[in-house]
Amino acid sequence: MSFRPRITAFLCQWCGSKGADMAGTSRMKYPSTVTPIRVPCTGRIDLTHVLDALTKSDGVLIGGCYTPSNCHYKHGNYQALKRVELLKVFLKQMGVNPDRVRLEWIRASEGKKFAETIRSFTEQLEKLGPLKTQEEAMPE
Amino acid sequence: MERKSTERIGVFVCHCGRNIAETVDVERVTEEIGEHPSVVFSEHYDYMCSQPGQDMVRDAIKNHSLTSIVVAACSPTLHEKTFRDVVEKAGMNRYKCEIANIREQDSWVHTDKEEATAKALRITRSIVEKVRGNRELSPIEVDLHKRALIIGGGIAGMQASLDIANAGHQVVLVEREATIGGHVAKLAETFPTLDCASCILTPRMSEVANHPNIKLIVNAEVVDVEGYVGNFRVKILKKASYIDADACNLCAKCEGVCPENVLSGFDEYLSFRKAIYIPFPQAVPSTYTIDTEACLNPEGMKAVICSKCRDVCEADAINYDRSSEMIEEQAGVIVVATGYQLYAPENIGEYGAGKYPDIITSLQFERLLAPNGPTSGTPRRPSDGKIPKKLAFIHCAGSRDENHNDYCSSICCMYSSKQALLFHEHYPDSEIYNFYIDLRASGKNYEQFIKRVQDEGINYIRGKVSKIFEQDGKVTVFGIDTLKGERIEDQFDMAVLALSMVAPAGIRDLATKLGISYDDYGWISEEHPKLRPVETPTAGIFVAGVAHGPKDIQTTVAQASGAASKVLDMLSHDVITHLPTVARVERDACSACRLCVSVCPYSAITIEDGAASVNEALCEGGGLCAAICPSGAIELTNMTGIQMMSMIDAVSEEPR
Known about the structure:
By secondary structure, chain A is α/β, with parallel strands linked by helices. Chain A contains 4 helices and 4 strands.
C-alpha cells in the first residue's frame, strides 16, 4: 500500500476551523489524512506544539485568519507567522524539510481553500514520504 | 456500557440522522472510545440535540456520576451552547462539556467509512483529552456602560437609535455626512406602496434630532475602538464645523453670496450647490455646512481669502477659527449601520454611464423623479433638458455578473419597475422598456406590484444588455430578447442603469477597528445566518441594514429593530458576563520578563510585585501570552500546554 501521510492541523476557532466547517457544509471532499485541533488563535500555538506534532505525524498545518488585520486577537496570526518562519529555518538546519510545516490563512468563507490546501499538502507529503531526519530532500 | 475509573467522562456520539452515521461507524466509535481509561460511559443516539438526546445526557450525568462529557456531533458553533446548558441543568459545570466535531470536519468531507470512522475516533479522543484537563469555571462579571453607539445615520441607524432611545437608554449616533437620512432621503417614492420617501423619513429625522436620549454627531467618523463588550471606548473624529448649529437660523444669505459652485452630492451630481450649503431643506441637524474641499479658503481655513459668508451672517454663526475635534465616547454596545454605495458606473465601460450624458444611474433618476430634486420632479434629460419619450431601464448593471459582482442586489427589479411606473404615470404616452435577467419580487405584495406595472403597459424584455452608447441625442441599446431568441438594437431618449449595491468605502477599515469580520464583498458577517442574524461574532457589536448585505427598506428597518432589541437585552442587565477562559499566572514560576506584557493585544497584563498579573475583564483568551512565555508561568485556562500536548498525542494515535 502506498504511503499515506498524517497531518495534524491546528486551526483557529474564528477562521481556520470555520473554513473547515464551511468545506463540510459545502460537502467538499478532501483526504482524511488531516486531523484538526481547534485552538483559540494561531498565536496560541507554541513551537514545541508544532515540533511535537511533527514527530508524531508527517506534516503540520496551521490555519488562521489573514494577516495583517483579520486576526480576532489583533495580531495573534502575526505571532504565528513569525514563529513558523523561524521554525522553518530551524527545521532545515536539523535536516527536516521545512515544507512539512505549512501556514495558511483561511477565511471562514473559504471552505474551498481549506479543501484544496489539504489535497495539495497531502500530495506534497506523499512525495516526501515518512519523516526521517537527516535524509530529507531539501527545496532549493 | 459502564467501566470503573477515577476520571468519569461520558461520551455521546450523535448520528445526526444519516449525516454522520452514513459515513462514520458510530457504534464502533462509541465502543472504542468507551475503552479510554477515563471514559466510564459512552452512548450513541439518532439526534443528540433533540429532547430525548438531551435527556439521555442529563440522565447519564446523574446515573453514572459523570465529571465531564464530550458530545461527538456537529461543529461547536452550532450546539456547544445547547449541551452546556443541558449539563448545567444537570449540576455539572458548563466548562466540563466539550464538542468533538465529527460532522463538518469529518463525515461530510469524506466518503470512505473506515477512514472517516478512524478520524472520528482521533477527533473524539483529542477532545476527551482536552475535557480531562478542563477546570470548572464560572463567568467573570464586568460592569456595563448603559449606552449604545450607532455608526451610520441612514434609515437603519435611525430606527435602531430611536428604538433604543425610546426604551430609555442613551444613544450616540455617528454619521459621516452632514445630515442623517442616508439614501432614503434621496428617493422619490418607495415600492410597493408608493408612499413618498420624504413623508416617511423626515418626521423620523426630526424625532432623532429632538430626542433627549440621542446625541447626534454628524460630519464624523469612528477612528478608533478599544475595549470590549460593555466597555467600548470609541474615538470619533468630527470634521471642523465652522458654523454654530444653534445660532444658524437658515436665512440662506450665506448661500446667496458664496462665489463657489460645486456639484451636489445629494442630487447625485445633477445640480449645483454652493461651497456653503445645506444638503436639503429638511436636513438634520438643520444647519448650513462649509464644504472645505470647495471653499476658496485653503486647507481647512488655514488662510482666509474670502469671508463673504461670515460678513453677511446676521446671526454671527460662522467662525473660521474652529478646527476638527477628537471626541471620545464610552459605550456598552455598538450597532454598525453603515449602508452601501452604488457600484461605480465607470466600472461597466460598455454601458457608457459617465461618458454619455443621458445614460444615468438609478439614484440619479430617483432624484429626477423626486419633487425636491434638481428638476422639481419632472424628469428631464441631462443633455438638453427635454422630457424623454422612450426610456430603457437596465436591470442587473453590475449585479449577478461574474465580471463585476456575482450577487443579486435584491432591490433593483423592484425599484426599476417603480421608477418606470412613476414616469409612466406622469407621461402615459411614453414608451418604457425594462431589460431584465429574471424578475425577483419575493417581498410582501411585490409580485402584485410587478403585475400592476406590467398591466400599465410597461414592457419587460428578458435578456442581458451588451452595450449602450449615445450618438446624436439618441441612446442606442444592444441586447438580446432571450424569450423570442432575437437580437435587439433599439434607440431610446434615455437609459437608466440599476447599478449594484456595494459595500461602502472604508467599511473594511472600520470592521478591522471594531474587530468584526466581513465577507469577500465587504458586507459585515453575522454570527449565524439564520439564528443570530444581527449579531456579529464579536460580543456587543451588532449589524443592521445594508451594511450586512443588500436588502430593501422594509427588511432594513426590521433588522434595525432586531438589532435594537438585542441591544436592549444587553442593556437590561447591570453587569455582563465575560468568558472565563482567560490567562492565569503561576506567580512562583514567573520571572517578570514582560514578554507576555508586550504580546498581549488588549494590554490586559501588568507586572505586579515582580510577577505578571492578568486583568480578567480585559483578557479575551487568545493565548498569545501562553505561547510566548519561556517558563510556562502563564497558561490559558482550559487550553493549557499540557492539554495541547495530550491532544496532539491523541490525534497522532494509530488506529487499532
